[in-house]
Structure prediction request, 407 residues.
Amino acid sequence: MTLSKDLPNDLIDSLLSNYKKPEDLIGENGLLKQLTKALIERALQTELAEHLGHEKHESITNRTGNARNGKSRKTLKGEFGELSIEIPRDREGSFEPQLIPKHQTRWTGFDEKIISLYSRGMTVREIQTHLAEMYGIDVSPTLISSVTDAVVDEVKQWQSRPLNSVYPVVYLDCIHVKVRDTGSVRAKAIYLAIGINMEGEKEVLGLWIAQTEGAKFWLSVVTELKNRGVQDIFIACVDGLKGFPEAIEAVYPKATVQLCIVHMVRNSLNYVGWNKRKLVAADLKRIYTASTVDEAEQYLTEFEAEWGKSYPPIAHSWRNNWARIIPFFDYPPEIRKIIYTTNAIESVNMSLRKVTKSRGSFPNDDAVMKLFYLALNNISKKWTLPLRDWKPALNRFTIQFEDRMPL
Prediction:
């Protein structure tokens, strides 16, 4: 069927003959809603005529003698609000409407709107209020939960999907949320891994939930990455996650584990009052911007002499973590820029915190995974370009890890 692109002016004039105010057009009983109802019901009658082989009041031509048998009423929910539709029936019950399939009570795209609102951190109650205010629709919490629960299987498929064989850089971190578990609310760690692939593009590799951070759990995470196809990681950037360096080295013995420099500086400055922060930060910067390990160690010794008595935990922390800091100095500036910080994952965590801030706690682990997965889908849509300065870094990776580069 071919439809005319433009409606005749006399038809439009006829439809708008009683138009006086906006409500006459877009109100609860306005022209648009009436026209939508009329067109849908007319289209359903056309579908039934096609199914039966004859129009209304015409002779029955099909072999079984099937004919029209009244109508049933259905209320559709959508952006136009609630719309009562009369669905034609046939005697045999064999008519399957295409425009509005059996059991459908929501207009196409309405479920996607609920999921979109949910992915932006709106609670079930907030979604209810929004839909009521915007479209005059009363949606139950059960409906919202059932719509969003449909994502759970999608999450499982995504979490088990195959991954690339090599990721030059992988960032790992965690974010804590409150989850109801066995009758009480507990703080749980949500672990997140983001890889930089050979094209310099960011990719969320997976999400994991555990009660606490620990070597045993991290070993299971890294093993899962291996089982999903990741054969090699050049550099893993972490925020001092307890047990992770040992876990990743057990599965990827050639990988370099680099402690996030920005986190080291941030944690150090927690011990310093505002009046001294700039001075301390400047002296710490001398350490991590040094050209060589020996130069960096000399600056650390000078830092201890200057600030050791006033802020003993700072130098103590840098000394204790020195073995995980110094790999940074083995690389040229092009690679240092990328592994200097876990900001690539910190910015993601910041976005995730925004979508969870209005929630006191989650009812279960599935609810956490569901929201985080949907939120990450929104976040990753902005990752359309490779990392800045990726090509020079890739050239360096090619030289530094020549025997480990994928063919």
Q: What stands out?
A: The longest helix spans residues 31-52. The radius of gyration is 30 Å. The mean pLDDT is 83. Strands lie at 68-78, 81-90, 166-181, 184-196, 202-210, 232-238, 256-259.
